[in-house]
Amino acid sequence: MLAIIVVVILSFLALFSYKCSHSWTHPAFLTSMLWLIMVLCYNVLQHGLYPLSDLFYCALLLWCIPFCVCSLAFSKFNLPIPKILLWQMPNMKIFQKLSLLLVLLNVILLCFLNTISKDYGDNIMSGSRNMFIYHEDELPALLNYLMYFLNVSVVFIISYMYTYGAKSISFKLLFVAVLIVLLCLGNKGGIACSVFAVLFLQYYYGKLTFSRMIICLLLLVGVMTILVLVRGDAEDVTLTEYLLIYILSPMPAFDLILKGDLSFNVPPGAATFSSIVKVLDVMGLGDNIKHLDASGWAYVPLPTNVYTNMFNYYVDFGYWGIFLFAILVGIAWGTLYNPMRRGVKLFVAIYALFFHALLLAFFAD
User: Fold this and answer.
1) Can you tell me whether residue 364 is helix, strand or coil?
2) Which of 171, 253, 343, 358 lies 20 to 30 Å from 302, alpha-carbon distance?
3) Are 355 and 343 in contact (CB under 8 A)?
4) Residue pLDDT, tens place only, 57-93
5) What is the distance between the alpha carbons of residues 310 and 316, in angstroms, rounded to a whole number?
6) Terminus-to-terminus CA distance in the chain, angstroms?
7) Greatest Cα-to-Cα distance within the chain, rounded to the nearest angstrom
């Protein structure tokens, strides 16, 4: 019964969000519409996963309603933008030097990965996956620094993709280098982030056609399938079951936590601010902080270690954490959306880079 009420509320939120924003890419519309699709799929499709409890639907409403309201409200505020944030294309000489430096760092990263991953798996993909998930404490600091430069490279590519700098040879070399590194890492999240960012930019600049979107999505699914097979992620299950794990299982996995059947003992904030903890680790300042370890399996009944975007907030602060961060994150998305719609290039790039977080909220890896 509660599932039907949730479907009705999410439908209303989606319609109301689109009527207020007149945009398919508004955070409120995407969040309400995608969660509506996920709830409908979970209750209509035959998947063999555990049924969702009322606790999950309550937590979902506790996230969606304040998030949509706050993102809609704050997207209406035309806040003044400091001149320093009115980002422009830098001098081409500086641009080329930066891009060539990033190409060199990514080549070094690729060589480094090829050397040390041999001790952890049969190939560079499976070895990289195993060492980053199960042997993170053993990794040299240089590798962590190089991984941060990989992230910088992705940001660099997305930021300058629709400028005249994208026609330069150094930019094209960087694009190829980053693509090779992401493939060798088997980094499905990084690849998905990049593809969705490109799709958003195509839509924003009026270059996205239906055929382009379908081709991009088919390529993404194909690459993801190849990565799954090469990394050996689906050794104990069929490929169909593995797809179910990645699409639907995060919801019952999070439900296990809500029901108390699965727990994580970490100090408050360790899960929500795990990225900051990792940065402190790289700087050698995080030795006394207990880390969140979510690499174990939750059985729903298929094994999974992926949860929804509400996971970190609930683990740290319970239901109040879901509600509070729905407000804060909604405010942040609404504030980001407004200057993006006004055409400020810096905010267009930032929105594109984080666009995948809206589309993949149902499994926060």
Assistant:
1) strand
2) 358
3) no
4) 999 999 999 999 999 999 998 888 888 777 666 566 7
5) 10
6) 30
7) 63
